[in-house]
Amino acid sequence: MSDSDHLLEARDVKKAFGATPALRGATLAVARGEILAIMGPSGSGKSTLLHCMAGIVEPDSGEVWFDGRRLDTLDEAGRSRLRRTSFGFVFQFGQLVPELTAEDNVALPLLLNRASRKKAYTVARSWFPRLGIENLERQRTGEMSGGQGQRVAIARALAIEPQVLFADEPTGALDSLASEHVMELLVTISRKQGTTVVIVTHDARIAAYADREVMVRDGRANIARSRAEAAL
Amino acid sequence: MASTILLMYSHGVSIAYAVLGIIGQRPSYGYDLKKDYDLYYGKQKPLAFGQVYATLSRLLRDKKIATQGAIEPSKGPERRLYAITELGRNDLETWLTTPEEQRPDTQTVLFTKVVTAILLEKEPDVYLDAQRGAHIQRMRELTTLRRESDSLSERLTADYALFHLEADLRWMDVTLGRLKPLAKEIRRER
Ligand SMILES: Nc1ncnc2c1ncn2[C@@H]1O[C@H](COP(=O)(O)OP(=O)(O)OP(=O)(O)O)[C@@H](O)[C@H]1O
Ligand SMILES: [Mg+2]
Predict the structure, then answer these.
(1) What is the β-pairing status of strands A35-39 and A212-217?
(2) CB A66 within 8 A of CB A8
(3) Do B139 and A204 touch (CB under 8 A)?
(4) For the complex shown, is ipTM > 0.95?
């Protein structure tokens, strides 16, 4: 059984793409409500690890546990349901539909979860002031700045009140000030809602918002040394 | 470990010029000076009275400031009003408009440890990983401090330290990725 303190766990997860090994046995546990940063060199397997934990990619071997249940053994329909109802996603870009308005984008996952139109749009609109983007509800996301778009993406990810928010380089395309605003909102809201956050980032200043960081090297996750250990 | 990192970045403000700048706005008493200094620069590390008067007497000696009004010897130095002189104002202006020397030496400790580890055939990556962890830990503390602070000056000071720590981290990451060729180069030179 999975440790009840851990909402999410990867155990010795391996994944290869053709001849390329992306994960060579990654083990990682995320506590309930924790904000965890995953760092590591380019190509080390960070995104693949995130995708395996989020049920987007099926591991070749190893186990993924979510909320006391095996996730990797679910069929595609089961994992898709889990992603829709329990997980939120924020990527560097690409998860918004550019032709749709911001509120359409935020309402979409709620509609997919069978909320009524009225409910979906009421909930969706309630997110805009919280993210400091009121007045942008009717703007098409394709016509927004990167920072505005990422706030809409966060609203979209959090609107379904997911148990886990997965973010892969959410501020990768933003300047320092915009990154700071986005992270500030992401961390504040997640803490308030008790959302567990797994965030992949190259940026140490972004990782510094997390409770803990993990380094992925050559497809393996190393728990970063704590300060006490480092001082030894 | 965290305190070492703090030390590395505490060279920042030159106290004498900060003090001269405060007096430059308007003549000031020693006590008010300290209060102003602490307000602008010293929230985390207030200026001791001893430092205030040591700084003032140096500035007086160099004729960058002068006391104003009658000096009553019965009263302590805190009763004196200090004002900037023409010389002081020129000096302050020069300091303000002259770019700072770069400090190429900040990385030497980190670099020396890496090379020493290689020379002793120890594992530099173990040291770098530990240093990396300590840097991020310090960054976490500064990030929390910055998030909880409602003073913009304090937040910008924290940002300054954060960006410098980040620069160190980038150097460590690049070095971690180049340890093998570095070790080869060093052994060749031995
Ligand atoms: N869909 C895929 N098809 C083929 N190879 C893949 C695929 N996804 C990842 N890889 C390979 O797996 C390895 C790990 O990739 P991954 O995207 O997880 O790295 P990353 O740590 O996220 O890198 P980056 O920091 O550059 O985003 C790389 O060698 C990559 O080329
Ligand atoms: Mg990636």
Answers:
(1) parallel
(2) yes
(3) yes
(4) no
SS3 A111: helix
Among the candidates B66, B97, B128, a domain finishes at B97
Pocket (CB within 6 angstroms of ligand 1):
A 17, 20, 22, 40, 42-48
Q: Distance (Å, rounded) from C-alpha A62 to C-alpha A21?
A: 14
* Amino acid type, B124: P
Whats the size of chain A, residue-wise? 232
Which of A13, A14, A17 for a ligand 1 pocket mutation test, highest count of atoms within 8 Å of Cβ? A17
Give tens-digit pLDDT for B8-28. Answer: 333 334 789 989 999 999 999
What's the CA gap between A167 and A164, in Å, rounded?
10
Interface residues of chain B, partner chain A, Cβ below 8 Å: 1-2, 129-137, 139-140, 142-143, 147, 162-163, 165-166, 169-170, 173, 177
DSSP annotation of B79 reads: G
CATH number, domain of B74, equals 1.10.10.10
pLDDT values of chain B reduced to their tens digit, one per residue, 190 residues: 333 333 333 333 478 998 999 999 999 999 899 999 888 887 667 888 888 999 999 999 999 999 987 655 555 555 789 999 999 999 998 888 877 766 666 557 888 888 888 888 888 888 888 899 999 999 999 999 999 998 888 889 899 999 999 999 999 999 999 999 999 988 887 6
Distance A91 CA to ligand 2 centre (A): 10
Ligand 1, atom 14, residue with closest C-alpha = A45
Structural domain for B54, as ranges:
10-97
Same domain, B43 and B82: yes
B17 and B75 inside one domain: yes
Domain assignment of residue B152, yes or no? yes
Domain-ending residue, one of B44, B72, B97: B97
pLDDT digits (tens, 9 = 90+) for A160-189: 999 999 999 999 888 888 899 889 999 999
pTM equals 0.82
**Could you tell me if residue B50 is inside a domain?**
yes
B76 and B145 part of one domain: no
